[in-house]
Amino acid sequence: MSNVKNILVVDDSSIVRLYYRDALVRAGFHVDEAFNGLEALEKVLTAAPDLIIVDINMPKMDGVTFLQALRRHALPIGSIPALVVSTEAGEDDLATAVAAGANFYFVKPIAQATLVQYAKLFAGVPA
Amino acid sequence: MNDFLEQFVSESRDLVSSALSDLEALRQAPSDLALFESVFRGFHTLKGGAGIVEFDEMGRLMHFAEDMLANTREAGNSVSPALVLRLIDCLDLVSSWLDKIESSDALPAAAADEVRRLTADLSIVSANQVAPASASIQDSDVPGWLLDAFGSAYRNYGATLAVRYEPTPDCFFRDQDPLEKVRELPGLCSLRILPKLSWPTLEEFEPFTCNLVICCLSTSRPTAVVDHLAEVAEQIEIHVLTSSESAGVPISHEVSSAILKAQLAVLSGSVEEGLVGRIGSAARSAANLLRVLGTDRGALEIEEIADRAIHSRQPDLLSHKLRAVMAELAARPVVHAQSGGPAQPVTTSLRVDIRRVDRLVRLTGQLTVSKNAIGHIAGLLGNSSDVRQIGEELKSQHAALSSLVEQLQHSVLALRVVPLSHVFQRFPRVLREIAAKLGKTASLTTEGGDTEADKTIVEGLFEPLVHVLRNAIDHGVETPEERAKQRKPALASVLLRGYREGTNVVIEVTDDGRGIDTGALKRTALMRGLLAPEILDAMSDQDAMEIMFLPGLSTAGSVTAVSGRGVGMDVVRGTLERMSGSVTVHSSMGVGTTIRFTLPFSVMMARVMTVEVDDQVFGLPFDAIVEMIQVPRQSIRPVGSAEALVFRGRTVPIVNLSRALGRASPDVPSEVAKIVVVRVAGQLGGFEVDRFGGRLDLMLNPPSGLLADVPGVAGTTLLGDGRVLIVVALEELLE
Fold it and tell me: How far apart are CA B663 and CA B650, in angstroms?
């Protein structure tokens, strides 16, 4: 069994996806990308990742709706840990995302080292 | 208060106490790194705890204090006395909060304001302090330019090295392009460009003179960076970050507790839809975290509990477990990579020294051996007729067993032991408050804070000690003018000291004040009509000290806000007697006073005298018993609605134990009344019983269940014949 963990990065901005991918790949993760919630759901169903890093504001399906849909799925898909990285810094935004099933919430911008650190913790990869 | 908060309060008290003593030491040795780290760790751990129980104000305050310390360290400064005082203030505030939390489970409403006040103070102190910047940086330390450029955030990039590149002013004419060079720097992960000298005005600005300093962080190997910058080597300074500097992102308590807290938030959602997924994801997140932290077993436990939570659709099952995990993680000592020595374990009342547990395990093993031996003897009994031999063997096994049980008892009691510092640490603040109110100054020294005693005793000491300390300052310590006349140092000193004496724990409060005027005591007692003049005349000075303990006596000329609250030394004595302790006074006019508390090492070991009433056995605390007498029934006289007996010229109220405990009194009173005379809080009282028993040493269980609500019950224990012995709380019955 491969020990490489898969991370699905969901963000409509390609530069943000690149920024995450760059850090995560260097840290030894396998990274897949989706540019909105709908595409992310499809990817999750075809190849379940070990961790999802997801934005909130996205076209077609936003991060909160995606999380709600994800959590409705049967296990193990429904239980994939998800980190939200969003530009929204309000208390309400955080509460909404958490209620939808976000396991952690970061406000953009996030340093690559921080992202990698938390990705490792949530995916269970020793530092 | 729930266990969680209780542990938090108890641990925080420990931390505050050790931080206070470290700060005191740091004041003497401001550049002692080990002490500094220890103080830092203390604030850090306090912050972690506050985060877990969600006392945000406390977290903020501790974070602030921690920042101040970090700034001082990063600036390479030693800790100033002003900062020490401010930090002590912070700890005092936390101490007062802990008192509040104990009584109300919450921080006081004014906490946020208090934090604002103190943090404002703190920033002034530290601003002054950071000013003389990084002149004294040592090689091993982080260079000032790195901090100037990135602040402490340089740790956040996972960089392996930092580069300072100061291009020569004429670099553009030397065909060097600093920015291009930096852009190509291997592993570049962060960049700051600063002016070398302050920017000139536009008229004086010279665009072809390079006035830049470029600071970069790189994740690359030093050799690669050096190679890349070889041609401008003389303009380069490279600082290789040690792993502790670059690792910067160790899995700190904050990170793990933040992650676990986030999972609690996920679990707290009330929406039914997606509940299973949310529980599952929280469990996976937490379990993964624990795996990274190296506790696979914890991860498995979480997964098991998550299964149950999912099947029963009860997220609370998992929340409960996660809280326990948080508490456990917080209890781990924090290891700072840069700290000088090994992390010191923090002791709290709820954590038990592993050696004590090991000892219990060993004893259990020996008990098993003993049990097997008895089984063997029982086997002999069936086959052998040599009764004498069996008797011998039984006797020797009995001896072995009783020794084991005694050791077991001691070991179990030792689990309840806490250091006196638990209560001592609260007194510097108490003393400051009292002294401030009275306009006097005094310094408090504590000794023997590591002396141990039963938890119940240590916790029960606070009130009586506060009272004694108040007295010391209010009545004992003279005004500065008086002290000057007496040629005493202007600053009065009070010593709070604890030590073991045989099986007792002794706590003393010694002041260097004016001492107790026994003449004044006698006059007051006479004036108040507390004692007859002839008795007073016959009293020696030491006996006269006892007057202090009479109810309704106050020696102070005036009643003050601090000590004239109607609570006297009689109450102190009563409190100590409830803990089977005693209090004595030694005083020397003009030199000072010592109040000495003597307490048993453990309250749970009780020596009782058994008595029988209605065929039920009761135990009376042995120490309280003055005498056991048999008197003719007629000598007990009715006094109002009660009864009394004249005993050695004093009228002693008599209580029928049977009636006092709500049992039926005998139909036909006996001709001879059996009375146990006791002394409780200085008062004599008598209990009528049916039969006197014998002396017994036993381990007392606190009353529980139905008994917990019955007045007059101090505790219970099981007798050899299977009957339950109830130990009577005398003071409650005499009231």
Answer: 28
